[in-house]
Amino acid sequence: MEDRSRLKILIVSQYFWPENFRVNDIVNYFKSKNADVEILTGKPNYPGGKLFEDYSKNPHKYQQFNGCKINRVPILTRGNGSNTRLVFNYLSFFFTSIIFGLFIYRKKKFDYIFTFGTSPLTVALTSIILAKMCKSKTILWVLDLWPEVIFELGVLKNKYLEKILSKLIKYIFNKTDIILAQSESYVNLIKEKINKNDKVYFFPSWPEIQNENDKNDIYDNLVLKNNFEDNLNIFFTGSIGDAQNFKTIVEIIDKTKDRKLKWYIIGGGRRFRELIKLKSIKDLFFMFI
């Protein structure tokens, strides 16, 4: 017999386990609160741009996560990470998540549909459409402020397209029931775009918890022992891509290679290959994770 006392939650995210994103922790949290959770996502290919090897060989192993059912829709992978390829990657998930989602969940009801709002934020349209069918409230966690980030960094430059995306994002914000923003500045910027300000909440991300073996591996591989005393040490951790303006960071590393600086880069993303070109710099240490 169905337990109607349990919250039913659908997670919509282009990225999910075995890809390493905070949405994995969100699912674990909801599960710990005895919620009935399902996930609608794509096939794992971030950040390398190819389907994960073990997933390709054993896709059945990735149909559940901590007892939660995963529905994976077909997508065009990120490939070489070019802007054109990424656009088609985003569009493919947008269309397949709606088409497959409408079919998969046509007879289901959810209390909430939670959207993990990395780039592109248009993924929230899938949640809005499914929410009407599933009679659900929507929650959107905004981690990248669209469309500002892609135009400020020069990823896209067409002013007409900027106006269209701005109106689309404003529509998404106004149609979403609860908006979570990962920085306080995001809260203020989002409130400027919507009619109902009291539905926006500050919800920051959290540090990744490593086990002791992971800590030792990072420590040893980056040669951190006795390297801090006589240098200015600069750490960069997280995603390595256009949204982080990493091209500029690479240029700074190259221009300061003769200074008394040590750079430590820990992360992964489409711009990681640019670090490989700088591997001759003796004071640059990096780890792809």
Structural description of this entry:
- The radius of gyration is 20 Å and the shape is globular.
- The chain has helices spanning 23-32, 53-57, 83-104, 124-134, 148-152, 159-175, 184-191, 212-221, 246-255, 272-276; strands spanning 8-12, 36-41, 64-65, 68-72, 112-117, 137-142, 178-181, 200-202, 232-239, 261-268, 284-288.
- With 289 residues, it is α/β, with parallel strands linked by helices.
- The strands form 2 sheets. The protein has an 8-stranded mixed β-sheet, with helices on both faces.
- 36% of the residues lie in helices and 20% in strands.
- The chain has 10 helices and 11 strands.
- The longest helix has 22 residues, at 83-104.
Give the topology, please:
Elements: E1 8-12, H1 23-32, E2 36-41, H2 53-57, E3 64-65, E4 68-72, H3 83-104, E5 112-117, H4 124-134, E6 137-142, H5 148-152, H6 159-175, E7 178-181, H7 184-191, E8 200-202, H8 212-221, E9 232-239, H9 246-255, E10 261-268, H10 272-276, E11 284-288
Parallel strand pairs: 1-2, 1-5, 2-4, 5-6, 6-7, 7-8, 9-10, 10-11
Antiparallel strand pairs: 3-4
Helix pairs in contact: 3-4
